[in-house]
Amino acid sequence: MIHTLTARVRTVLQDAVARGRRDRGFALVSAMLVALLLSGAIFLMTATAGRATVTATATSNFTISGQLADVAVQDATYQVNEGNLAALPTSPGTARVAATDKDGDGVKDWSWWVDAPTTVAGRMQTVIHAEGHYRGTTRRATAKAQSLIVGGFTATSGQQITYELSPYSAFGHTVLARDTTLTDGINVDTTSGQPFLSGNIGVLGTAPTITTSTGATVNNPITYMLYGANTASLPLTPATRVPAGLQLDAKFVTENADWCSGKYGTVDNGETWVASKHGGILVANGNAGCYKSMVFDVPTTISGSGAFNAFVTGTVTISASISASTDPVSPSGLNIYAGGNQVSFNLAAATESTVTVQNTFIYAPTAACTTDTGTSGVHRSSTVGFDFTGSLACASVNVAGKLTGTTPVGALGGDNDSVTAAQGGTVLDQNTYNARVWYLVDYDQPSGSRDG
Predict the structure, then answer these.
(1) Sign of torsion, CA 88 90 94 95?
(2) DSSP secondary structure string for all residues of 174-216
(3) CA–CA separation, 75 vs 364, rounded Å?
(4) Is residue 156 a contact partner of residue 183, using CB atoms and an 8 Å limit?
């Protein structure tokens, strides 16, 4: 009996794997399929003396139907990664079903459907509802899936795929970097348990160092997003582990900055944009500017609605507050795409007791993003607070203050890019990033009841 059961299970899984092989598609999907197959590992139960045959049979039916529910999730993950979201079944009545009926009971081996995909905080997401059927036993599984918008990719000898992450998807993280060090600022009372960090913390390399200056323990409402094989084993919780490796795309900044300045010319003859020279105002409304560097030396307002998109080939220095509309219906925001090696929140030069930066999203693939105090290696000011809302997607981040994630405002690198130059006319109308990688966030193991 055990030999027969083993052969049957092997046949089911071999067929499932064969169906999963395609001539095209992302390597990410293969990684997901392996993980899901492992989640449905076969547990054979050796019948002891006196155990009724019907009990062993019911147990095997229960196990195999659970494995088939896993196979349905695998198929659903493959299909959403194919990109034709409009063709996905969105109700039980339109469910996609297996082509096979191994047990010959008239019910196909598995089926699945998804909730209609929605976009939340810059991420498209859905829920997969799957069922496995075997000899009258049905088991159900659900899996929440989210997607990232990516561009090109590279592959390593270890079969790790690393995708270039769009700014649009990067800005769904409060912080995203290979090396991250975060602590509270003087504007946060961590001794009473006040959190200083919220949102998604994206990990591309080493485990972030997150501490309080007082040594107090606080419950920061964060979720770690661990990308690629190198981060999968990091002991961080709560965490979502994504098989695909990611990297920030430096060419997005340099190539678009060159194109922008070449077509429309740069403000201030290609020199530094200085807030005090422009009345501390940037007009959003989808406008764009191309600069050698930017300095926010006086409080600056992002007026209008939507985003101002700034391409900066050099450094960015912020020593004064940046205010924006936080109206959820009509927000304004500042998106900075920086190609230099430094984004400095220069608290040493601040004249305010707290530098408050609102709805500011920084994509700086080669830069160290830091709060600076005037003393080398010291990033926490003892006199000036720092309150940041937005996103820091940088090569490295070393910041002390309060950091809050929020929904991106008019970020580039989405499905449709079109912004207007500050001098008039369209700068970008490109789909630089035209692919989505879907991954599983929460996977509930198959549930159900045995027959017999």
Answers:
(1) positive
(2) SEEESEEEEE--TTS-GGGT---B-EEEEESSSPPEEE-TT--
(3) 37
(4) no
- Pairing type for strands 209-211 and 118-120 reads unpaired
> Do you know the residue count of the chain?
452
Give the SS3 label for residue 86.
Answer: helix
Amino acid code (one letter) for 413: G
Q: pTM of this prediction?
A: 0.77
Q: Which of 222, 173, 205, 243 is nearest to 438 (CA)?
A: 243
SS3 at position 390: strand
- Separation of alpha carbons 407 and 335, rounded Å: 12
Residue with token string 């194109």:
259
First to last CA, the chain: 18
Residues whose CB falls within 8 Å of the CB of residue 341, separated by 6 or more in sequence, listed in order = 315, 366, 367, 368
**Is-contact 195 219, C-beta < 8 A?**
yes
CA 238 centroid distance within chain: 15
HSE at residue 398, side-chain half, CA atoms within 13 A, is 16
pLDDT in tens, 67-89: 999 999 999 988 998 878 889 99
403 forms beta bridges with 197, 388
For residue 442, what are its two tokens? 């929460």
β-pair type (385-400, 402-404):
parallel
**Which conformational region is residue 278 in: left (phi greater than 0), alpha (psi within -120 to 50 degrees), or beta?**
alpha
Token pair belonging to 240: 């979502």
C-alpha gyration radius of the chain = 26
Q: Which whole-number Å values give the CA distances from 250 to 75, 99, 340, in the listed order?
A: 34, 45, 10
**What would the pLDDT profile of 1-43 be if each residue is shown by its tens digit?**
334 433 443 443 344 334 333 333 333 444 443 343 333 333 3
Q: Which helix (H) or strand (E) holds 64?
A: helix 53-81
